[in-house]
Design brief:
The strands form 2 sheets. The chain has a 4-stranded antiparallel β-sheet, with helices on one face. About 25% of the residues lie in helices and about 25% in strands. It has 5 helices and 7 strands. The model has no long low-confidence stretch (mean pLDDT about 85). Helix 4 links the parallel strand 6 and strand 7. It is globular and about 45 Å long. By secondary structure, it is of the alpha/beta class.
Length: about 150
Amino acid sequence: DEYIPLTPVPDIQKKGRQARAYAAGGHIYKYVLKASSAKQAQSILQELQELPNRDAYNLHRNGLFLSITDRKATKQSGLETICRAAHLNAQHVAAIGNTARDASMLSAAGYPCAVLQAEDALKQMGGFILNPAHLPLFFESKDPFNTL
């Protein structure tokens, strides 16, 4: 119920594009597009950056995938929404990130974790650095943070 509706994006599903709209409560809150090549991904990203209401959107590219969300939708607001829905205090939650896009989310979590290959800025946030090879051991522990 706390999705941030996305301002309509004109021509998002042009012929030949693979686009998926994610919706809740009758409102679209995210689009994900898959380009067929890096060149096409760059071309679509440039086209989206030239939209007249560009400041209403967050645009992110990861390889061939592009995601579009409302500017107000952040990873931090997502973490806070999940915590409210689950009746959890964010100071008792672990968040894991690897890029600068994750910084606000990690700063809101009580147990900020960066993966071993994360950007240096995330590793320096004062939290945990996780080695993916050891994650199964981390999650098998009954109390990975030794809070009992």
